[in-house]
Structures are given as C-alpha cells and as structure tokens.
Design goal:
Length: 152
Amino acid sequence: MAELKKVRIHTDGACSGNPGPGGWGVVLEHGCQRWELSGAARETTNNRMELQAAISALQALNQACVVELLTDSQYVKNGITTWVHGWKRRGWLTAAKEPVKNEDLWKQLEQIASRHQVEWRWLKGHAGHPLNERCDELARKAIAQVKGRAGS
C-alpha cells in the first residue's frame, strides 16, 4: 500500500462586519510546492468563513492525505475535535438544547475530513506567522473583491 502524501494547510477566515461580506484564504504545502486558494460570500459571519476555509482546503486534495491543518480559530479546532461528538449525540443540539450554529458546514467539514488523516492545530492569529498572515491577506482581498462586485 502506498504511503499517503503529507500536506500542511494554513487557513483563515475574515469578515467585514459580523455578519457582513466575508472571505477565506488557504495556503496548502506539499514538499516544496505551494498553492493558494481564496473565496468570499456577500453576507456571512466570521465563523462561517473560518469553516469554509478548512472545507475548501480539504476539498482541494484529490486523494487521501496525512494533513496538518493549522487554524487560528479555536471555534474550528475545538468544534471538529471535541464539540461535534456531543452535537451529533444530541441530534445537532448544543448542551443548552439550542440548534448548532453552522450545522450545514460542520457536517460538510466532518464528511470531507473523514477522507484524510487530519491533525488539527491551533495557532495564535495576527502573531506574525507568515503563512497565517498570508491566509488573512487572501481572505481580505476576497472580501474587497466581493464588496467591489456588490457596487457594480
């Protein structure tokens, strides 16, 4: 059996207003190769963009991989590694018996992540980490583009 490719992924989401126009950015690294992805939504939240960044990054992989995914979102990291198990047991309700916010994206993230061996790592955002800063830049450029289209 062939050894799985090792990929490092950095993700970030951003929002101009919350809710408001939002964007996400991703940097994928495999060996010495690097790819960048980004996208935006006209009306969204920061948490949805953080989730969308992780989903889009994992969807970009065309085969099962060993993934180190770095996010500056405690919401994403804790949600996918810890909280999701309780949400599922309770029928996608929080401990307070409220519907889980962003259930659609959590289900999508869990499904796409199951194709890979993912190590979820949190890193402090806006702390000078070059690839986290690059993801933030990609997300903010995507917001600017969607804002520009809104005025057209």
